[in-house]
Recover the amino acids of this structure.
């Protein structure tokens, strides 16, 4: 984690809109939310594997899907951005959500919701044996959210989005 970038608010809870992917309330600007299904799976994975972390690289195959690892198992560094420390009810410690800096440069204008869908991904994420995989759902941040997250007006609107 040495030298990793932390450009946004480092904590994110499961505020309004987390379950349905809707917009958070006026004081709840965050980059990431969890669906109820994702939070439930994280509680299970925490019981099985201990403290957890996410990393999303934007690479090939399942690289654009968030990968869940035991905390510290995936080495982060200067080329990664800590988007949030997700607070999940029933999990004693926050779950860090990291993204490669290149991916963040393309997605910085979006709000991400971590969800769970049936099926196995092609990676090494901890949920694979459960027969499900994590998935990102996204929407553009509102002007108000960008302002609260220190985004310049209109940021990120001209570039394409991977996913």
């Amino acid at each position: 984690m040495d030298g990793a970038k932390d450009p946004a608010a480092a904590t994110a809870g499961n505020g309004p809109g987390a379950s349905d992917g809707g917009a958070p309330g006026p004081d709840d600007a965050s980059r990431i939310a969890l669906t109820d299904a994702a939070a439930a799976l994280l509680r299970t994975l925490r019981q099985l594997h201990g403290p957890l972390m996410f990393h999303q690289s934007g690479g090939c195959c399942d690289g654009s899907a968030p990968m869940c690892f035991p905390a510290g198992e995936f080495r982060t560094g200067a080329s990664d951005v800590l988007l949030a420390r997700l607070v999940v009810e029933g999990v004693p410690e926050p779950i860090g959500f990291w993204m490669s800096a290149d991916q963040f440069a393309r997605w910085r204008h979006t709000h991400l919701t971590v969800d769970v869908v049936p099926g196995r991904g092609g990676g090494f994420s901890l949920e694979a044996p459960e027969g499900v995989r994590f998935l990102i759902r996204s929407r553009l941040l509102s002007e108000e959210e960008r302002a609260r997250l220190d985004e310049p007006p209109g940021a990120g609107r001209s570039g394409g989005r991977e996913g």
